[in-house]
Design goal:
Blueprint (H helix, E strand, L loop, with lengths): L3 E2 L10 H8 L12 H13 L4 E5 L2 H12 L4 E6 L3 H4 L4 H6 L2 E5 L9 H7 L9 E8 L12 H13 L3 E5 L3 H8 L3 H5 L4 E5 L10 E5 L1 H13 L8 H13 L4 H16 L4 E3 L8 E6 L7 H10 L2 E2 L1 E4 L2 E5 L6 H15 L1
Parallel strand pairs: 1-11, 3-4, 3-5, 5-6, 6-7
Antiparallel strand pairs: 2-8, 7-8, 9-10, 10-13, 12-13
This protein binds ligand TLP.
């Protein structure tokens, strides 16, 4: 069965232009710095976020890990939200591999960290404490409804961090969705950060890879960390070729995914036994919960929907996340809403 797959934008397959670019990619040994496609992608990424340099990494998880390992040493502390992807879904890598202490403070419903909470979390210089080194933000914020964080807020966090000698990293897995949602250039959102990761393999449809961006000096150090993590790839230009298409052709169209997410939310609002999060969607994600008296739980509803050809993300006992992307059409949205009505109606 051909599914309407709303589980995530990570399920996106390459576009025809990407397959074409991959088939004809110029490649070389990237560990020698000789892969022309990787070099081009890295230059393009740095330019798109107006940073000095960029590094191609295998995944968003590797990008965040390499960034945090580059900024922090063993016994140092990173301040981040309790709903951050790095806290919830990166297998504790920063602690396991870096001995870095994750100081979690509550994410506000809009994905931000309250400035006074950040301030309170920054430790004084005292032998009892780990050394506070880094703050990380997530933009858009996955578990906070796909919320975009504004440039002004990001600047305020950056200023606060810098005043206290800390640095700022952004997990910008979906930074181009944030830019599309806010109607700004992604460079503005990246400007306050000392480093930022973004993903090619989510809404931008490339099959593999993320970019870590920052100063030349930071990227040189991150390069060694990537090698330690086993992330030095060889003729990975085949992947970079798709990434170049992603950056050149796929960022401007994300507004279409956001429009379809709104269409989906409008349809689902009419479905019985389903309660949408207030304000959803904020980008390409719709979050909703089964009503108190709904006759089934989320896994049961999800398997009934699958029988109607619709796959949804389960993010709680009674909660769903539905993500729009390049391979979801207007007609798919109509069919998805129909499937919900049939299952819950
Ligand atoms: N997120 C995935 C799952 O892991 C939850 C998804 O389906 O949304 N940062 C953010 C904000 C992310 O949402 C993700 C992936 C990552 C980092 C990790 O990227 P990958 O999967 O490339 O390691």
């Amino acid at each position: 069965m051909e599914y309407i797959d709303l589980r995530s934008d990570t399920v996106t397959k390459p576009t025809p232009e990407m397959w074409e670019a991959m088939a004809h990619a110029e490649v070389g040994d990237d560990v020698y710095g000789e892969d022309p496609s990787i070099n081009r992608l890295q230059e393009l990424a740095a330019e798109r976020l107006r940073k000095e340099a960029a590094l191609f990494v295998a995944s968003g998880t590797m990008g965040n890990l390499a960034a945090i390992l580059t900024h922090c040493g063993r016994g140092d502390e990173v301040i981040l939200g309790d709903k951050a992807h790095t806290v919830l879904f990166e297998a504790g890598g920063i602690a396991a591999l870096g001995g870095i202490f994750p100081r979690q403070i509550p994410n506000q419903p809009d994905g931000t960290l309250a400035l006074d909470e950040i301030l309170l979390a920054i430790r004084p210089d005292d032998a009892h404490h780990p050394i506070s080194r880094l703050v990380t933000l997530e933009n858009t914020h996955n578990r906070c409804g796909g919320a975009p964080l504004s440039a002004a807020y990001t600047q305020a966090v950056s200023d606060l961090a810098h005043q206290h000698g800390l640095l700022l990293h952004i997990d910008g897995a979906r930074i181009f969705n944030a830019a599309a949602a806010l109607g700004v250039d992604a460079r503005e959102l990246a400007a306050p950060a000392d480093s930022i990761t973004f993903c090619l393999s989510k809404g931008l449809c490339a099959p593999v890879g993320s970019l870590l961006c920052g100063s030349k000096e930071f990227i040189a150090r991150a390069h060694r960390i990537r090698k330690q993590l086993g992330g030095g790839m060889r003729q990975a230009g085949v992947l970079a070729a798709a990434g170049i298409v992603a950056l050149q052709c796929m960022t401007e169209r994300l507004v279409e995914d956001h429009r379809r997410a709104r269409l989906l939310a409008e349809g689902l609002e009419q479905v019985r036994n389903l309660v949408l999060d207030p304000g959803t969607p904020q980008s390409n994600m719709v979050f909703c919960t089964l009503a108190e008296d709904a006759p089934a739980d989320a896994p049961q509803v999800a398997s009934a929907l699958a029988e109607h050809g619709v796959r949804v993300g389960i993010v709680g006992k009674r909660r769903f996340r539905l993500v729009t992307h390049y391979w979801i059409s207007d007609e798919d949205i109509t069919r998805a809403v129909e499937a919900f009505s049939l299952v819950l109606g």
